[in-house]
Amino acid sequence: MHVVQLTELASVLAYHGPAMLLQRRPISPEAIAQYWSASRNRLDLWHQVMARFNRVKATGDFYRMRCWWTDHMGVLEEILASEVLTRVVAAIGDGIDRRNGTDECSPITQAIHLSHLEARNRVQWAILDRRGCSVSDAVRLNRLRRVTERWIDVLIGSLAAYDSELTRFGMDLTRTQSHATAARECSTTPSHETVAWLTRAAMTEGFQKHVAKQASLPAANQGVADSVMMMMRADLFDSIGTLKSLWMHRIESKVDQTDQMIAEFLRPDVNESTTVNAYEQLHATALAQWFR
């Protein structure tokens, strides 16, 4: 799997992340375990690449260092670009655990997030070191870093529109808050899905311009993507396997709340007159919530 596809997956996850937070259902332990295993496997491969850089640098051989940059440029790009997905997963894991009052998935997603930050910092130090790195390669990686940071703020901002605590997973707090405000205003308009689709298309095109066409670690990326897909519960999909819109999740949530209120007010131990008044109150409350 190519890293651009991981960024697309991050966009899809960010769009449906509010639904995952709205339902307040935990992520399955199997998905969390698979995410940990797949991410650790990819992190080990990244660290092996950076360890080779340190060994080559110790020799002082400029030609070998130049060869290292040529051979591993694609891996460095994947380390930078795939941070988009890592941060979105970490944000959703944190949001779900806080809403449920548990610590089931956020410790794992946060640990992977911190390990990814360490790998990214090692890439940035290698760029600053510049031994064996051409000017064009350094400029290319720096542009990719800036593109990645901007899109992280866009996607985290779309999640922070429903949970302001998640802004801390963005790169630039002011920029993330600005995107959160824009996403909050757009979420109530009919064009919400169109905006999300255009955002995903723009992000995909932006990353394609800054990364190699050939995937460097396709199997490792595929493992991470599969584990993230496992986190998306079955109730996020309709009967034909298509992801439901956020509006549909909101409707389903309102229906569930209404059913619970009806069950509470129509208990057998409640007398008839109280039931009638309660039902009228319930009907008025449900209508107010529906049209709010």
SSE layout:
Elements: H1 3-23, H2 29-59, H3 62-81, H4 83-100, H5 106-129, H6 135-160, H7 173-186, H8 192-208, H9 218-231, H10 246-265, H11 272-290
Helix pairs in contact: 1-4, 1-6, 1-8, 1-10, 2-3, 2-5, 2-9, 3-6, 4-5, 4-6, 6-7, 10-11
Could you give the count of β-strands? 0
Structural class category:
mainly alpha
Major sheet attributes: none
Instruction: State Rg.
Output: 23 Å
The global form is globular
Uncertain residue segments: 238-243, 270-276
Number of helices: 11
Provide a quick synopsis of the model:
With 292 residues, the protein is mainly α.
Can you walk through the features of this model?
By secondary structure, the protein is mainly α. The protein is 77% helix and 0% strand. It is built from eleven helices and no strands. The protein has helices at residues 3-23, 29-59, 62-81, 83-100, 106-129, 135-160, 173-186, 192-208, 218-231, 246-265, 272-290. Helix 1 (3-23) runs parallel beside helix 6 (135-160). The longest helix has 31 residues, at 29-59. The chain is globular, with a radius of gyration of 23 Å. It starts with a helix and ends with a helix.
Name some characteristics of this structure.
single chain; 292 residues; mainly alpha; 11 helices
